[in-house]
Amino acid sequence: MRRREFLVGVAGFAGVAGAAGVAATARQSGETRVLPSAARALAARLARDPLRPQYHLLPVANWMNDPNGPIWWRGEYHMFYQYNPDGAYWGDMHWGHAVSADMVRWRQLPVALAPTPGAADSAGVFSGTAAVVDERVGGRVWMMYTGVRAVPEAEATIKNGARSLLETQCLAKSEDDSLRRWRKLGEPVIAAPPDGMRVNGFRDPSPWRVGEEWYLALGSGTRDRGGAVLLYRSRDLRRWEFLHVLAERAESIAVPLAKPDVNEVWECPDFFALGEGAARRHVLIYSTNGRSYWMSGRLDEATMRFAPEQAGVLDYGAYYASKTQRDATGRRILWGWIPETRPLAEYKAAGWAGVMALPRVLTLDGQGWLQMQMADAVETLRGAEKRLQPTADRNHLARQMAGMEIEGYSGELRCAASTAKDWELTLGQDGREPWLRVGSSSEKPDEILVNGQGIPASAATGGNRDVSVWVDGSVMEVLVDGKAACTVRFYPDRETAERLVPRWTGEAAALQGLSVSAMESISPDRLTR
Ligand code: FRU
Predict the structure, then answer these.
(1) 361 in the same domain as 422
(2) CB 126 near ligand 1, within 6 Å
(3) How many angstroms does the Cα of residue 433 sit away from the middle of ligand 1?
(4) pLDDT value of position 26
(5) What is the pLDDT, as a whole number, of residue 449?
(6) Is residue 335 within 8 Å of 325, Cβ to Cβ?
(7) Does one domain contain both 355 and 394?
(8) Catalytically active residues, by annotation
(9) Helix (H) / strand (E) containing 421
């Protein structure tokens, strides 16, 4: 979803409740045990929808966007997310909630946060972050999030033709260790942008602690300079002092695909240290205009000034509003929202929209380039595996490939191939244009092509590329060498057999290995309960 649609969504959809949507809300919020028949019918339809993923997290029905406040807490992973209980379109933002022992197998819980009539979040509970306080006395989780309410245009931080909205930063405290019950503070803790700053947006707080102090990165953009992340400081999470702009668009650092745009807002910032000793850097991630980016560099911890040295794109495909957390062992986990790429009318009719990407572990290489690998918990879903025998014989290879199909749109494909040769790996259905094309050219050894998009990926040592594809419903998450990521959506029609077949073009000998594994579903009914 593009930002423009999001603003249209604010104006057009909030408060519109479809019958199926309302019924499904009752179910998700746990208010009713006996489901209205419309909700039962919707759940049954969604459980049979072959395009609905089986091992990715998504709500029981309706719309999902950003991951919010992911946290490992009292032995469980909690994921909250932007959720519209009214239907499969953006609007009326609540926080959905799910829990997992391993970041992969999820159980749905009731909605965690809803807008409060008359309050700062009456028009929506927007994105935010978990913070742990009172650690000396056992700890409590607080959520810092953006509340949105309708105001006169002069006070607004989001303006569009139909409505003007004020974004303020709010706090909610957990009242139980299962993070199901929340109490909101009566008033916002950051009620307005810094004096004199004319912002395009002011949202998605991301606090972190350094000793006795809290810092906060906040997504924004100024009317004359474009996207920016604002830095604040506090001692108690309640009284915040604006320090300076932590990062903004700069000529000095080249960011692939980013175009100057003074109207942009850098949404969902997240700022953290990665690496040890001399290799330690700070990393900023943010999302704008449909893409998630990263920067790595040095933070001067005395002045809190950040000097970026490297920058890149987190994922070149359908992937947005990324957010991180630490896992149980301290690794930095990246989450992201996989939006729909089909038209609004289609996903609205489907009754569900939006998927949470699988957890990826972030690290930095020696040059400060961001690397990512699927978390090992994803491997525990692997089922029966088919493995191809590498061969220089083209016909033998083609015969083996035909047996490497992925059934029911669910599986994992792994492939190793030489960067010294030209080749293309495709995944598709018989007689149709493939849904996925991954290609490598010996003339451009530092680039990989995914569905026509060139992605920088410096040639691996040993001259091999490792390509992994996680196929699930209508999602393909593609990772190459742990450097280049591209999430692809595909929407086959119901007439086509639910089977994808890989094909290889190029010298047979360039293919060093290929395997396809079945993936276990995380629920018997595509997470519809
Ligand atoms: C990103 C975003 C955030 C905002 C939320 C609203 O997708 O626009 O900036 O908090 O979604 O749903």
Answers:
(1) no
(2) yes
(3) 34
(4) 40
(5) 96
(6) yes
(7) no
(8) 66
(9) none
H-helix segments, 241-393: 344-350, 376-379
Contact 219, 268 (CB under 8 A): yes
Query: What's the whole-number average pLDDT of the chain?
Result: 91
* CB distance 93 to ligand 1 below 6 Å: yes
Same domain, 106 and 185: yes
Three state DSSP letters for 88-142: CCCCCCEEEEEEECCCCCEEEEEEEECCCCCCCCCCEEEEEEEEEECHHHCCEEE
- Whether the pLDDT of residue 252 is over 80: the answer is no
Cβ of residue 84 lying under 6 Å from some atom of ligand 1: no
Residue with the smallest CA separation from ligand 1 atom 6 is: 126
Q: How far is it, in rounded angstroms, from Cα 516 to Cα 405?
A: 8
Residue 69 corresponds to which tokens in the numbers above?
A: 């406040």
Of all atoms in ligand 1, which is nearest to the CA of residue 66? 7
Domains held by the chain: number? 2
**Rg for the chain, CA atoms, rounded:** 23
Residues 6+ away with beta carbon under 8 Å from 376: none
Angle between helices 37-47 and 19-28 in degrees, nearest 10: 80
Nearest ligand 1 atom to the CA of 90 is 12
Residue range(s) defining the domain that contains residue 251: 3-374
Q: What is the pTM of this model?
A: 0.93
Q: Any idea what the CATH number is for the domain that residue 401 is in?
A: 2.60.120.560
> In terms of domains, do 428 and 368 share one?
no
Which residue of 8, 204, 206, 270 sits with most ligand 1 atoms within 8 Å of its CB, as the best mutation to test the pocket?
A: 204
Q: How many A from CA of 226 to the centre of ligand 1?
A: 17
Beta strands 352-353 and 62-73 are parallel
